[in-house]
Amino acid sequence: MNHDFDVISAARNWRTDAAATATPSDIVTGVYASDVLTLEQLRARLSKPTFKSIQATLERGATLDPSIADTVALAMKTWAMEKGATHYTHWFHPLTGATAEKHDSFVSPDGDGAAIATFSGKELIQAEPDASSFPSGGLRATFEARGYTAWDSSSPAFIMRHANGATLCIPTAFASWTGEALDTKTPLLRSVEALNKAVTPALKLFGASEGTRVGSTLGAEQEYFLIAEEYFYRRPDLVMTGRTLFGAQPPRGQELEDHYFGAIPDRVLSFMTDAETQLYALGIPVKTRHNEVAPGQFEIAPIFEDSNIAADHQQLTMQVLRNTARKYGLVALLHEKPFAGVNGSGKHCNWSMATNKGENLLEPGDTPHENMQFLFFTSAVIKAVDEHQDLLRISVASASNDHRLGANEAPPAIISIFLGSELSEIFDRLESGQGGRGTEAGLLGLGTSVLPPLPRHAGDRNRTSPFAFTGNKFEFRAAGSSQSISFPITVLNTIVADAVTALTAELQAKLEAGGDLNAALADIVKATYSAHKRIVFNGDGYSDEWHQEAEKDRGLLNLRTTLDAVEHLTDEKNAALFAKFGVLSDRELAARQEIMYDIYFKTVNIEGETTEYMARTMILPAAVKYLGDLRAAGAGRAVTAISGEVEAAADALYDAVQSLSEQNAATGGDEVHDKAHHMRDHVLPAMSAVRTAADALEKVVAEQHWPLPTYRQMLFVK
User: Fold this and answer.
1) E strands of 41-102, at which residues?
2) Residue 188 near residue 581, CB atoms below 8 Å
3) Would you say residue 73 lies in a domain?
4) Does any domain span residue 263?
5) Residues spanned by the domain of 205
6) Could you read off the pLDDT of 204-241 as tens digits, one per residue?
7) Are 315 and 218 in contact, with CB atoms under 8 Å apart?
8) Residue 527 lies inside a defined structural domain of this protein
9) Which of 173, 298, 453, 712 is surrounded by the fewest CB atoms within 10 Å?
10) Of the candidates 113, 109, 123, which has an alpha carbon nearest to the alpha carbon of residue 172?
11) Where is the GS catalytic domain (predicted)?
């Protein structure tokens, strides 16, 4: 059977009734945020006092008034039912890294044989999902099932549509009966408040008006792969683990560098348009789409939003990409490294700080060398990243991201900051006492009068840096494509809050001693940069020389694997930091460490068992069948030899996986830390050995006998 022909035929006939039909004017005037309960929608449906109460919570951080809950719930229910919703759900972010929802109907029997639509303020503010089946890291025992979801009024409710209706989704936090956070949203909200409390005192010294609030902003670029749906279901490794555990390199990969920013295939472009229309309706400001570096790889990127809403929107983006791809006979792969030997996928988090009046605190302006407010907050970020390299690395640590970090398409595991030539020179001149501005931007002439001269930035970009200044924000490029961005944002907010608090105290002390504001700022910026400039690196982050320099000469951390990083999460300095700002208690922090170990162990264990299963039930039988043909022709020695290698490697992998169970049975131990280390040190190498032999076998077995779709098919058939 020619599966390639079937897939190609499907690609030519992908169009369905579900394809998006909105016109560009529809998107601008009628689609954007049409499925979001916006402030304007609330204003039209609530009395003026009730709306002002909600507005005070959203814009000034005032405590939510429970007395208005019934009124808001009625308005929310009416709006949702007008949109076609029959059910509602408290939509939350448990510590799985995904989202969760339990749907309840608006319909309730009235006791007279009929039904009415109800939704109370109590149901809006609080629900009680079973907390026992979500990861808690020891915060909850299995028999302790009670947990609460609490309405997050700072993130708007929205409608999620499906083929037969729609559901009202209410963003919520998730906590245990004892009040401890069981989710990623609660610490993020706490960190936003910590940043506000740290930065507003500094802004007052710069003359900010009363009522100014500060939050973080974020725009998360999402990379992903698309493959034909049929190929996906014929690959047990993709179905079970999200990545290919086998696959020989095709003759052509990304060597020609012709896919990046290339013309987008028609079926893919139609999928993108459909997905974007849905995202627009959810109020997600997607801006950019393009082919990425690897064949079959793509990217979608929004403009910045408040970080809490950006985290919600990022989860929705992943969900919409996955769901929409299926309508076009495709599957969206969000794993960090679905194909060995080609580019992996990241999620670049563009982070900044802004006031409620729209001022970006990391905007350098036309004269950054004279903009002391900008230099003050930038130096705080430099201090924060240097002092908390470990936390930034931990925030992106996972078994899947280990396949990407440090490879020649992603930032290394060593955390450093790229400032660019202009900003580096400004800080260097301040440190030396020269001051002023060095590098000028100017215009870039292109050598022909047909083309206009282009404004040239004073500094280049650096795609190898994990933390790069990119004009008016920092781009944290180490986050993995499948992960929730909530924890990286939480870490960024908290470490910068800590640095700003320390620098503000220094500044206040100098001013109270009679110092001049500008002189005091210059002293603080100079001293801060001098103390932390080891973290600044503008060169090639992929080079061996940088790894040697970073560790030996600069003393920077190189936490190569997830387990190297995670063991530092509960270090004394980190526990003290999170406790100081009320972001995570000691118990909440320890729970997250336990969950990270547990998820690492389970991820690799699933991969190990899947590898052995595929080797024994698919790859070896295919080789045996092909050997029958070869032996009939008096050949087959090479296949026999490699098949023996596959079988021996599969036996060794089985032993590596089983030895952990036998060890636990003998010692009575079941420490998740030990199990995770066993997976890294024994199972992953055994999996690699099976793959090496199997990939060699793929190159000598006839194509009609090979049971798995190949890289050539998955990456290039669209």
Assistant:
1) 85-91
2) no
3) yes
4) yes
5) 193-436+461-572
6) 999 888 889 999 999 999 999 999 999 999 999 999 99
7) no
8) yes
9) 453
10) 123
11) 184-619
